[in-house]
Amino acid sequence: MVEGGATKLDKAEFSECWQMSWRQPYILRLAFSAGIGGLLFGYDTGVISGALLYIRDDFRSVDKSTFLQETIVSMAVVGAIFGAGIGGWMNDAWGRRKSILIADFLFFIGSVVMAIGLWPWLIILGRVFVGLGVGMASMTSPLYISEASPAKIRGALVSTNGLLITGGQFLSYLINLAFTQVKGTWRWMLGIAGVPALVQFVLMLSLPESPRWLYRKGRTEEAVAILSKIYPAHELDNEVDALRMSVEAEIAEEGSIGEGSIFAKIKTAWTTPVVRKGLIAGIGCQVAQQFVGINTVMYYSPTIIQLAGIASNQAALALSLTTSGLNVVGTIISISVIDKYGRRKLMIVSMIGIIVFLFGLTAMFKVASLNSPPVGKLETTHFANSTCPAYMTAPAAGSWDCVKCLDASVGCGFCADKENRRNPGACLTSNPIGGEVCKGERRTWYTRGCPSGNYAYLAIAMLVAYILVYAPGMGTVPWIVNSEIYPLRFRGVCGGMAAVSNWVSNFIVSMSFLSLTKAVGSAYTFMLFGLISCVSLVFIILFVPETKGMQFEEVEKMLEKRSWKVWKKSNEK
């Protein structure tokens, strides 16, 4: 996921979760109903990657503008940033259940608006609504599950929410592939997301509020009534006492950092040395998670595959399904090994693999561009009425190849040779007429990438390997580090800052990727991500401590006893 987290989980806890859920279906219904929020989160992340291919086909203005394409993708992230901020306040003021209902309503409205999408700006508006819902759901769903679940299986149920996020991404690719031959293509892809939002809305109407929130609001009887449905009678009194003590401790901890505004609390966090060290490590991990380029893959993987030389929308979507499936596999691997190998080591190994495969992608795209098929004069004049205007007026048109043709400012496409795509082809205008006459002769039409033979499949192999090394480490561990590295009294404010830094970094990457590929080419774009990853690796080695198996108090003491470079232990025992 890209913007979600996994909770520590062991096999015994998962087994206990499975058995207890079957014995008490109420728990399963509660966790599943709230967990749909994670599914929606993942679905929205993945669905736009395939829908964008067909939005470009329907709207000429979008096809010609990388800025419009980036805006359509990124406005959901902007909405999510505000949704997460508003969601935190709504959770406290109105409760978890109402917040989820509002998130579903916004997501449903956004899905309908996108499906109607008569103009690009209407799609963008729908993306903002969906983003608001995603931002709220990303905060509220795991919180609701953790507060309304039995303590002994809480970690398993919250981790299931993380799996539903990656599962939602995988589902989105399946849905994209299913609707490629249906009239309306992208409208169905984006609109069908409203169905699970509607299902969750209906299910949540029959579920109670979080007992913890009710207890904090003084509605003790209601909280106890809900706990009686979750715990057997002989455990109820102990759980009520535990809830009371936990809430009292939480209120006391919050009071210890003052009653001022959120800005005053942020200032206190940054001016407290121990907390500042934790923030540098935590926020650094979140920024690194995004700046290694993961959401360029999740949001644009079909486009990247087309840049590698696969022209067909359907083929690009089918190959993209592999990347999403491996993301699910990687998340499961992370859950199973995180407590065995530790957080820091897993991130370092993951980052080394990311660097290797990003530079591998750089090499593959560069070699493919150097071996781009030439533009043939005879081939191009064969389509005299559709010839690219820039080619006709270029003084050195004889030296043009496919890459030069696609980079033409007026917008041109490459019509490959019918017999061998590596042979000289034609440079035609990329308006619908050029593509239609090319396809009319049963030739392959390229507007994103060029024919590259085996290099395309090598690039795709590098992309698959990149996902496989990213998901178990940098995909999930930064969220776990952020859940462990802050003193308890600062967890809320510090966790909020870390989450916002993740969303903002996500926005910067998703809003700039296509512009970068247009400005410097695909190869150098991946090289840039590779260089940033090298810096991130050094940062993790120097500034991120190991928190495996440590209580919050132990983490705080560890940071107190370490120098500014938190990896360097002091001589104190």
UniProtKB/TrEMBL annotation:
Keywords: Membrane, Transmembrane, Transmembrane helix, Transport. The chain crosses the membrane at residues 30-55, 67-89, 101-122, 128-145, 157-179, 185-207, 346-365, 455-481, 493-516, 522-544. The keyword Transport applies. It is a multi-pass membrane protein. It is found in: Membrane. Pfam families: Sugar_tr. Residues 30-548 form the Major facilitator superfamily (MFS) profile domain. One of its GO terms (cellular component) is membrane. Belongs to the major facilitator superfamily. Sugar transporter (TC 2.A.1.1) family. This is Major facilitator superfamily (MFS) profile domain-containing protein. It comes from Papaver atlanticum. The lineage of its organism: Eukaryota, Viridiplantae, Streptophyta, Embryophyta, Tracheophyta.
